[in-house]
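## retry 2 of 3
previous attempt timed out at serialization; input unchanged, resubmitting
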Amino acid sequence: MKIENRFIASSMPPYVIAELSANHNGSLERALETIDAAKECGADAIKLQTYTADTITIDCDKPDFMVRGGPWDGYKLHDLYKWAETPFEWHQTLFEHARKIGITVFSTPFDETAVDLLEDLHVPAYKIASFEIVDLPLIRYIASTKKPIIMSTGMASEAEIEEAVTAAREAGCRDLALLHCISSYPAPAEAANLRQMAELARRFDVLPGLSDHTLGTTVSIAAVALGACIIEKHFTLNRADKGPDCAFSIEPSELRQLSEAARDAWLALGKAGYERAKVEESSKVFRRSLYFVRDLPAGAVVTAQDIRRIRPGMGLPPKYFDDVLGKCLNVAVQRGMPVRWDVFDA
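## retry succeeded, writing output
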């Protein structure tokens, strides 16, 4: 899978996505500053969310439209999304700025009008949010663009994931990644269940990744060690600003740490096998081997008191200790000489 200027694959370092979401706090200037910071911190991409309050819900006071519990407790849905939306008229400016500074930009559309807007901006890929994984008509519309799709699986059952994957593929999507996700804000680390990533990859033949709502970066780094090709984290300039998503977002110092540590974790995976790493070569000299610990004349018969298994490793391997005992020296040896076969009679 390729998104803009980078391939995403198990053979490549993990693709780190900084999720802007609502962390612009209603300010276009702050949104631009956040894109700059994501680039500076080493993220591969900045991701937007493309909706308005009126495209995602209706303005209604009925109980169904009130949020109960969690970080947005007490909000009416329409009011929450009005606060959090990234206005459509900002998008061209945000896209142009991201491309100017050299960071990939794409978005999560929440209805067909958002897809149409993003297509006009030549978006390189699409994200499907966990809450929209059940919106099969929207998935089909997105997939019909033939662009790569990254889909979060929070809350979804196996059957719902299968329906979404099938809808995307049948509508034309050829490059698909599934992000394991726990849709809790923030999500507790003990609920992360990272082993599910391997199951998603196996079951649906996709690239696996993690949309991480836990605090900090530990879970994301652990995910890389378990095969995540993509890491997505909500990103804010300052959690103290109390934006809609700030409480479970990482700050610039954490994003920088994540970008660096994710690459290091991937590099550390290496490959299975018994060939020793080249960096170990200089250490082999300090392994144990056989050394003479007494001065002995030519013709002496070697006893257990004459040799020891000690460091460094310039002599015969310790496994030959018993084989050397009782052999006759053909030259004189000194204490501290490595034991070699050529000092013995044939």
